[in-house]
């Protein structure tokens, strides 16, 4: 028996692109699940804090070594529990290949995809070191679904498209004693993004050792402030669509006005062309009349010249006749003289 296989034309989501072979979801503590997905490229792991159906979710990604802990001796773990207590979901992502930025981005995007399938509507992304570049790129991809970005000692490489970020709270923490990635990296990212606040932590190194409580308090304050903004409703979306429709109508009306003006201009040029044609025809008629008058004048001159020639010929004929008569008279006199001599 022959089977035909059809390849789906539907777009593939980040979660689909993982090509999971199997998934394990285990509750390891109240409001804490470990989700592991087996793929051909490695094990994708998520530490999920709070309710999976939370509408607000914070995604936390590590640096070049991966892991769930984050900087400052387990900041991500403390932050995840604190957010769950506030009914805010949190997902710590452990990369399959921490040395591959593109794969790390896909891993983080898959976590966001999973959360949105569960009901997430607003997402905040947090990244440490290389994870700062992952956070910026993911925020760019999520567009309006991302409402804030927080980075710790971010690198600048991989953030070249930060200028495409939508306006949002963007806070970058950086220690002034960071010997791995200096604070200039955060300043450069802010410059490329055209937005963002750089908070330099005096005395902090790359891992913010000894600054865990300070970072936790400031991070929670940033998250709560970003989520305090009212969530867009369907009615707001409809109003926005209506505004877009009004703008489209205005644009169509402007196009119609421009088209009418173009037609009027064309008609004006056509009228000018017709007037020009009439003027040309009138000029041509005047020229024909002038030519006719010149022809009449030439005919008159020719006739006058012919009359003069005829008169001249007549005079010549008369003169010739007079000369002939004179010769005959002279001959008659000569004859009479001859007769007299003979006598």
Proportion of residues in helical segments: 40-55%
Query: Would you identify the CATH architecture of the largest domain?
Result: 3-Layer(aba) Sandwich
Distance between the termini: 168 Å
CATH C-level name of the largest domain: Alpha Beta
The CATH homology group name of the largest domain: Alpha/Beta hydrolase fold, catalytic domain
Strand order of the largest sheet: 1-2-3-5-4-6-7-8-9
Q: How many distinct folded domains?
A: 2
What fraction strand? 15-25%
**Residue-averaged pLDDT:** 80
What is the element layout, followed by pairings?
Blueprint: H1 14-17, E1 22-29, E2 32-39, E3 42-49, E4 56-61, H2 71-85, E5 89-94, H3 101-118, E6 122-128, H4 130-142, E7 146-152, E8 170-175, H5 184-193, E9 197-201, H6 212-228, H7 234-342
Parallel strand pairs: 4-5, 4-6, 6-7, 7-8, 8-9
Antiparallel strand pairs: 1-2, 2-3, 3-5
Helix pairs in contact: 2-6, 3-4
In words, what does this structure look like?
By secondary structure, the protein is α/β, with parallel strands linked by helices. It has two domains: 218 residues, 3-Layer(aba) Sandwich (Rossmann fold), CATH 3.40.50; 112 residues. Helix content is 54%, strand content 18%. The chain contains seven helices and nine strands; from the N terminus they run H-E-E-E-E-H-E-H-E-H-E-E-H-E-H-H. The protein has a nine-stranded mixed sheet with strand order 1-2-3-5-4-6-7-8-9, with helices on both faces. The radius of gyration is 52 Å and the shape is globular. It starts with 13 loop residues before the first helix and ends with a helix.
């Amino acid at each position: 028996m022959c089977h035909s296989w059809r390849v789906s034309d539907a777009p593939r989501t980040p979660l689909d692109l993982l090509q999971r072979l199997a998934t394990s979801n285990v509750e390891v503590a109240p409001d804490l699940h470990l989700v592991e997905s087996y793929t051909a490229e490695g094990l994708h792991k998520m530490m999920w804090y709070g309710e999976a159906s939370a509408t607000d979710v914070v995604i936390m990604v590590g640096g070049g070594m991966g892991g769930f802990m984050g900087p400052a001796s387990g900041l991500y773990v403390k932050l995840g529990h604190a957010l769950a207590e506030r009914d805010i979901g949190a997902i710590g992502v452990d990369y399959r290949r921490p040395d591959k930025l593109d794969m790390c981005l896909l891993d983080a995007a898959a976590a966001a995809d999973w959360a949105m399938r569960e009901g997430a509507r607003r997402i905040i992304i947090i990244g440490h070191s290389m994870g700062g570049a992952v956070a910026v790129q993911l925020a760019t991809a999520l567009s309006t679904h991302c409402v804030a970005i927080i980075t710790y000692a971010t690198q600048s490489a991989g953030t070249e498209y930060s200028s495409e970020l939508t306006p949002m709270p963007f806070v970058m923490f950086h220690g002034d004693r960071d010997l791995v990635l200096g604070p200039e990296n955060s300043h450069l990212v802010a410059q490329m993004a055209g937005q963002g606040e750089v908070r330099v932590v005096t005395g902090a190194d790359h891992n913010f050792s000894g600054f865990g409580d300070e970072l936790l308090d400031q991070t929670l304050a940033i998250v709560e402030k970003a989520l305090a903004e009212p969530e867009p409703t369907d009615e707001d979306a409809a109003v926005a669509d209506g505004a877009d429709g009004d703008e489209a109508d205005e644009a169509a009306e402007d196009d119609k006005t421009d088209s009418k003006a173009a037609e009027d201009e064309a008609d004006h040029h056509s009228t000018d062309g017709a007037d020009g044609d009439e003027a040309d025809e009138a000029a041509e008629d005047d020229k024909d009349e002038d030519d006719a008058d010149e022809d009449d004048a030439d005919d008159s001159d020719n006739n006058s010249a012919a009359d003069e020639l005829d008169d001249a010929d007549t005079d010549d004929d008369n003169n010739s006749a007079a000369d002939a008569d004179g010769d005959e008279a002279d001959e008659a006199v000569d004859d009479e003289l001859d007769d007299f001599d003979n006598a």
